Amino acid sequence: MSAARTVAAPAVTTAPAAAAPDRWYVLGLLTVVYALNIADRFSISTLIEPIRAELRLSDARIAFLTGGALAMFYVTVGIPVAALADRANRRNILAVSLAAWSAMTALCGLAHNLVQLTLARFGVGIGEAGGTPPSTSILADKFPPARRPMALTVFALGACLGAWLGSSVAGTAAERGGWRAAFLVLGIPGLAVALVVWLTVREPRRGQLDGDAAPADRSTFAATLRFIGAQRSAVHLLIGGSVATFWSWGLMWWTPAFLQRSHHLSVGQAGQLLGPMHLIAGTASTLLAGWLMAQRRAADPRYVTRLLGWVTALTTVPSLLLYWVVSERAAVLLLWVFVPAVYFYIGPILGLLQNVVPAHMRATTCAILLFLANVANLLLAPQLIGVLSDWFASAFGAGTESLRWALLFLAPTGFWAAWHLWTSGRTICEDAARAS
Predict the structure, then answer these.
(1) What span, in angstroms and rounded, lies between the C-alpha atoms of 138 and 71?
(2) Residue 73 has what pLDDT?
(3) 48-55 vs 114-128: helix axis angle to the nearest 10?
């Protein structure tokens, strides 16, 4: 992330920060939008157990309903929408997308059977595909290159807030009014926020803070892929970020159900336990990442990639232990260590990617990351864990502990992510210079 500050510095000379006087308001509002994106997506993870029990589903089938149904459309619609965002009005795309996924989340609360709920989750995925790529592209035109790592780390606070909403608020609503009430509580407010985005956010001129050297032309998806393929650091960042989400968010997706099965918590108790971890520890981790990105050492992008690699590798250890220990107290303590790691890498990776591709390729590059990451953490990880859990239960008689063994199977992949993040630093300076 900090990488950006080093190599992009020459372009900053022609782009005064005063060019975007509303940038802090826009950053705050888009962070709220991102929070709603995560909340509407993550809430169903908290509700896995009551939905599974009512609809009488296996772990493999509930995995598809909760993750795969959303991911199928999220990942396929995401890249075309992002390509449009690299050409058309990003504010309009964002506002319409927010209204769409909020309405579909509310419709999840009106579903009475598996087919209706699955169709509503399809709609949530289609809407959410237009959330993050336009947002990050808008912010790249509100903040100069040297400030983008910091701005996108603040933007990443939306993930902490959203996970808290999807855990604590959804869990409490489900405890009081059933799982359908949780979707209504989270979905309806998004419609009002969509109107605020439409009325108050101005579309910035694309590439306005990248200096005279910034290209003003438009790019095709194929051209963007070719450029990324030639940027070794971008390839490693995309793979490392995707595997990191496969590891961290894949584990977190099933953690509420794990706490309910292996430690006998209710849906409300699991949500109230995890919610503060996301909000407090996740926010602290994101702010720490932002503070580190603002340090002088972070002007060297290689420092950031090494930092990301070390943090990911070291926190893989508690992610293994927390699903191994049988003590609830020990598991909770380990969760307080692991949950912050889920957020530490988000902002820096987004910031680094924004600076190793030209301005007219940023939304598409972000969508490619989201495509890979969400295939990993919404489609592959939940489904793999669900299938493994069913297999351990039937083939080995693991019973309610089958989920524990499935999670332990996934946890070591954090080391794989750490290697890619570390390796991205080898060519990142040259790659960022080429992009600018």
Answers:
(1) 24
(2) 81
(3) 150
